[in-house]
Amino acid sequence: MGKDSNGKELGAGIYQRKDGRYEARIRIKGQKKPYSIYDTNLRKLKQKKKQFLMLTANRDLNLSFSLTVSQWFEIYLKTYARPKLKTQTLNNYVIGFERVEDYIGYMKIIDVKTVNIISVMQELEKEGYATTTIQQSLAVLKQVFRTAFENRIIPFDPCSGYQYAGPSKSVNEKPPDDLFERTFEQVLTPDVLEQFFKSIQSRRYYELFIVLLHGGLRIGELLSLQWKDINFRKKQLKVYKTVKKVRDIFDEEGNRLYDSALYHQVTTPKSEKSYRIVPLSDIAVKALKQWKAQQDADKKQYGRDWGRSNPLFEQYPDLVCTTGPGNPLNRSWLDRICNDFQTAINEPEILLAQKEGRSPNLVKVTPHMFRHTYVTTLIKAKVPESVVREYVGHSSDKIPELRADPDGTLLRTLHPPVHGHLPQ
Q1: Which of 86, 375, 380, 397 has the highest CB neighbour count under 10 A?
Q2: Three-state secondary structure readout of the chain
Q3: Strand 230-231 and strand 236-239: pairing?
Q4: Could you give the CA distance from residue 254 to residue 232 in angstroms, rounded to a whole number?
């Protein structure tokens, strides 16, 4: 008969550990070591023990005492995830699990407790991962353990009820959990924009940065645009797909691949809110027409060879964003243009700051920051928050069902000069 720290009897096979947790040890036929269940609440522990014994008595368990978390993940990936998930999602699952594999992959899946899951999240914190990145890995673990529980591989789901909210913060420190609070931290100032567009005016893809600034598109959304998605007469474009770089996780026979090459894949957007119609300013329309002329010149230059090496050409022959030879545009080209600008601006500033004995005022520019700048411009023009969310394809529980404004009439009616606030 086990006892607690005060000597009170707890029941057969139940003990209180030095760390305050209660432990119930259950003998299982065919196993040398007893199976232990833990909880800080004695009543809940007894409920878990009762549930476990009932399942065992009903022979409703398919418990595995040797299967590791890594081994089960491979089974889950092939048997449960592969038939229903897109290649990009499978990629994300693999990446999310690889972050935590060193901390939990070696463990027997039946031995994993909630405290182990919490410990893994804390280890990722120490490695410096962002809260959203850690939450993505937790989401993968939740799917993996939930499936194991539903298939009676484990008696309890260690992820059930656990949520990771991020590193503990001081009472007065409030994390930016809203689209607009986050956006203001990543906005390009008018001065930086003026310098940027002046410096890249003669470079290829200049027009695409204009579209990013005046359309608020995500990079993948821009790269997946087809000319048929753009209505020049109505001055609008449709967003209903995105481009991602993925690698195959399985071959055609279902064998796991570990060293497959990356390739472009056009897929559906990240959420239903991402499906939308975006009104275009006159500046954006002009930029797109200029880019169309550039692409037509590329086709004339390369002739029949244009697009010959494009793996997406057969299914998407009218992609807007292409290289000179007609291949899909990689976002690394846009990153490179931004990096070149940063270097040109920051290097002289660093030298000047050293000479003057002060901290340098460094400039940061990324392709995604043009989307944030678009959002901020609309907010400053007093466009309703619900309308802004609709045009950038952002969902939030804080906002009720968004009003449909399929052709941009609402935006233009409420605030005709909105696009005039955007830098040209």
Answers
A1: 375
A2: CEECCCCCEEECCEEECCCCCEEEEECCCCCCCCEEEEECCHHHHHHHHHHHHHHHHCCCCCCCCCCEHHHHHHHHHHHHHCCCCCHHHHHHHHHHHHHHHHHHCCCEHHHCCHHHHHHHHHHHHHCCCCHHHHHHHHHHHHHHHHHHHHCCCCCCCCCCCCCCCCCCCCCCCCCCCCHHHHHHHHCCCHHHHHHHHHHHCCCCCHHHHHHHHHHCCCHHHHHCCEHHHEECCCCEEEECCEEEEECCCECCCCCECCCCCCEEEEECCCCHHHCEEEECCHHHHHHHHHHHHHHHHHHHHHHHHCCCCCCCCCCCCCECCECCCCCECCHHHHHHHHHHHHHHHHHHHHHHHHHHCCCCCCCCCCCCHHHHHHHHHHHHCCCCHHHHHHHHCCCCCCCCCCCCCCCCHHHHHHCCCHHHHCCC
A3: antiparallel
A4: 45
The answer to whether 225 touches 286, Cβ cutoff 8 Å, is no
Question: Terminal CA-to-CA distance of the chain, rounded, Å?
Answer: 79
Half-sphere exposure of 344 (CA within 13 A, CB side): 13
CB distance 265 to 87 below 8 Å: yes
Q: Residue 361 has which token pair?
A: 């005022």
Highest-confidence segment of 79-88, 91-100, 253-262, 348-357: 348-357
> Counting beta carbons within 10 angstroms of the beta carbon of residue 69, is it exposed (0 to 12), middle (13 to 18) or buried (19 or more)?
buried
**pLDDT tens digits for range 254-287:** 777 776 766 777 887 756 778 899 999 899 999 9
pLDDT in tens, 163-189: 998 886 544 444 444 444 444 457 888
Q: For residue 265, which phi and psi values (nearest 5 degrees)?
A: -140, 130
Amino acid 392: pLDDT = 87
Sign, CA torsion 48/54/57/58: negative
